[in-house]
Design goal:
The complex is a heterodimer. By secondary structure, chain A is an alpha/beta fold. Chain A folds into two domains: 208 residues, Peroxisomal Thiolase, Chain A, domain 1; 127 residues, Peroxisomal Thiolase, Chain A, domain 1. Helices cover 33% and strands 21% of the residues of chain A. Chain A is built from eleven helices and eleven strands. In chain A, strands 3-2-4-5-1-6-11-10-7-8-9 form an eleven-stranded mixed β-sheet, with helices on both faces. In chain A, α2 packs parallel to α5. By secondary structure, chain B is of the alpha/beta class. Chain B has a ten-stranded mixed β-sheet, with helices on both faces. In chain B, strands 9-10 form a two-stranded antiparallel sheet. Chain B is globular. The chains are: A alpha/beta, B alpha/beta. Chains A and B meet through α3, α4, α5, β3 and α6 of A and α5, α6, β3, α7 and α8 of B.
Chain lengths: 346, 396
Amino acid sequence: MFYVHQINCISPQQTFNITDIEQLLLPVNKKLNVIEPVYQDIPKNSLRRMGKTVRIGIAAAMEIIKQAERFDGIVIGTGNGGMEDSIIFLKQVIEYNEGLLTPAHFVQSTSNAVASQLSLASVNRGYNITHVHRGLAFEMAAIDVAMRLLENRQHSYLLGGVDEISGYNYKLDYLDGWYKKEEVDALGLYDTDSPGTIAGEGAVAMLVNNTKNGAIAKVVGLTTLHSTDVYALQQHLQNFLKQHEGLTIDLLLSGENGDNRSLYFYTGVEGMIQGNIPIARFKHMCGEYPTASSFALWLACKLIEGAALPAHMLKKGQPKTAYNNVLIYNCHKNLQHSFILVSLAE
Amino acid sequence: MSRVLITGIGVVSAIGFSADENHTALKNGACGIDLPMHLQSKYAGIFPAGEIKITTEDLKRKLGIKDASVTRTTAFAVHAFAEACSDAGLTGEQLASGRTALIGATTVGGMCLTDELYRDANSDFSTSPFLSSYDCSSVFLYLQQHYKIGGLVDTINTACSSSANAISYGARLIKLGFADRAIVGGAESLSKFTVNGFNALHILSTEICRPFDAARQGLNLGEGAAFLVLEKEENIGDKKLYAEVKGYGNASDAFHSSSLSDEGHGPFAAMQEALASAGLAANDIDFINAHGTATENNDEVEGRAILRVFGKPPLFASTKSNTGHTLGASGAIEAVYSIFNIINQEIYPTLNFANVDENIGFVPVTNYRKLKVQNVMSNSFGFGGNCTSLIFSKAW
């Protein structure tokens, strides 16, 4: 599909300026908020007007944009992008009884704010699109980029996934039963036998193209499914694995999130993986959010680059000294599933 | 690479509840814009809009939708989706195939329920049926679940060019082998949220809009939905054909979050790329369905960009004067109208045009007429500088 060159990640863990995934930072009030960087590239005036999604999206991407020899477009996936500004604007609409309002929050309320602000910041007039398909927003953005790279072999694209926990979207998802009612600590998350999970957020940006030279990793395959049926999911995985028969998977990165209603999808997938392959989990690090699979892709790249697998991630099996083929499985709200296969670029 | 052909269409807008009704209305120069009856907003008595004259409850009853979580936006989507699939003769088995994709677009999604969202977002105990209906993807996840779509499903939001991008995404999936068939389109409904947003930007007109007119005062919002069924040429057999998705271009204007650059960098690049991907020269385009929102900024910049691309511009018109600006649905609705141009070899007038804007010296088509139409370009430009241009061509 494509080679990943630079990849940056702003997350609730130490993943941005300093990378230390061994030391686990814990959720506060069942929320894992990102560690926001110092925004040196964004003018203070603009920064004040930006919502968190836009801030962290730009910060994750800017260093890549500055260093890229060329990039031909911006492709962003976001599940909740713009939601916070939407609700702030609608609060004004209702509380001022549709009085005269300033348009700032309305303009930022469209989900394409990150991609459009990035095009402004870099004066990039190339391909520009935003995918918002909830738990598969990042995956659909990645397929878009894969198609662009088939259509334009020499191009490079900025691909990103970004979401924030806003007070409002947390509340709506909480009321809808997606977050735990009881207190839970990060490592105990997987031992709870109750519905719901913990909230998370993050921004991942990467430069991708068809060039093997100097690449960190290669996204070899990606497939998605909408289903509530674990057998259909297993069938889907079997077909996907068949397409990539030549590769020996040496790690399963599982999006297990402590929600007892989704556990059977994750165990169903684990049951399909042949051999004594280690299984590692990551939602205790980033929390649950629509584009969490982009955090898993960042992790896969780091492990392939040689980072050691932290003990707190390991669910089953023995860690290896090197990872060449990592399979990511993620499930969002028991309906949207994805598998991403990431390999060493050689 | 396979040609991508259109085998089914469905549309609901302020000028009709079906493709046939929309076609007749365009031919007759009908205008669906007036003061809204159903929109709950204090501006309902001030700003005319292209409202579909049915309550959400009646619409859901008509469609047999009992699910309380279904919003007005989703109901419009169901209406147009069902028409397009039935028009293309798609079976349940074909919809469930892993090779059938659904690519949707909207900007308002479930936020058409402005008051409900405000209540739920500020409640500690709500059991509202809409808790998972507010985002954009809820519209197309409902279609996926209800019709059991088996292949790739996506939701795109690039503001007013959203559904034009959904069409090109679906066409590319087919061309590059990710799908054999794609049902592509968009849906939008009028809301207190969008009316207030556009009012805050001072671009709503208190009169019925006048695209490209020197005295234009802004846009009218609209609502509706449209879907196209795209299929790979090899699989079509002797099915009825509407047109070919021939070219597509997407470019960012990279100028401002809610207005276009004077030079129209984005519109120019999108049109150029659409021509290049279609393998056509500028003079192959017989007609342009312009974005033509009737704001001062859009029409002038679009006009200037058309002049740059074409030198002498082809015939063009804006159907925003019939339907209002349906935002995330406009690219798909106007794709259906472009198909009408091709299959009927005729073009429809821009309504309410009287005075030439000397800044661009542009005169849109103002009368219905027959025309030999091989290739139609359809433009959609959105906030955030997201510009998309599509080309539809006669398929035989």
